[in-house]
Amino acid sequence: MKYALNLIALLFFTTSLNAQEDLPASESKAVVTEVQEMMTAFNDGNSELLIKNTHPVIHNLVGGQENFEKTTAQGVKQIMEMGIKIGELKVEQPSQFYKAGDEIVCFVPMSSVMTIKDQKIASTSFMIAAKGETGEWKYLDGTFVNTNPDQLWAFFPELPKDIKLPEVKIEPLP
Questions:
Q1: Cβ 54 vs Cβ 68: under 8 Å
Q2: What is the extent of the structural domain holding 76?
Q3: Ramachandran area for residue 135 (φ above 0: left; ψ -120 to 50: alpha; else beta)
Q4: What is the Cα–Cα distance from 151 to 42, expressed in whole angstroms?
Q5: What is the full per-residue pLDDT of the chain (174 aa) written as tens digits?
Q6: How far lies 68's CA from each of 32, 75, 126, in Å?
Q7: Which residues pair with 122 in a beta bridge?
């Protein structure tokens, strides 16, 4: 009997970790708050928070962590000098998470209006949030998925292939 209960528990646990699941409300709210904080940091020119919260998988693409930190700090400085700001930000709660190897991944839909000098650009996109062994959520901008969807599975090879991703749409406003 004990063996049967252990087997049932193991099967349930394994199945639930591989399936699409509801994200606990506390986790969902924490992710929304962190994305909002990152967008505020972006507007304030605070590259430190962006660096701290960016998923480390991106480091290899730019020549390592040190180069990522340097490049990010320079990029944020240039963005500030250009006067680019994110406004009218709306961050939605993710409703599902997916098991992807040792990480839990979810998609955080968001919309905003970005101002670049006198031009306004409406953006509908998402952040990719992933939590691994550290227990901290780390983020990637999901906009790249629109032009390079295979990169998502290069970053998270065990992410299910049949997931529905949030919309990505960027258009100038009149």
A1: yes
A2: 2-172
A3: left
A4: 24
A5: 333 323 233 333 333 334 455 667 888 899 999 999 999 999 889 999 999 999 999 988 889 999 999 999 999 999 888 888 888 899 999 978 999 999 999 999 999 999 988 899 999 999 999 999 889 999 999 998 878 889 999 999 999 998 888 989 999 998
A6: 24, 10, 21
A7: 113, 171
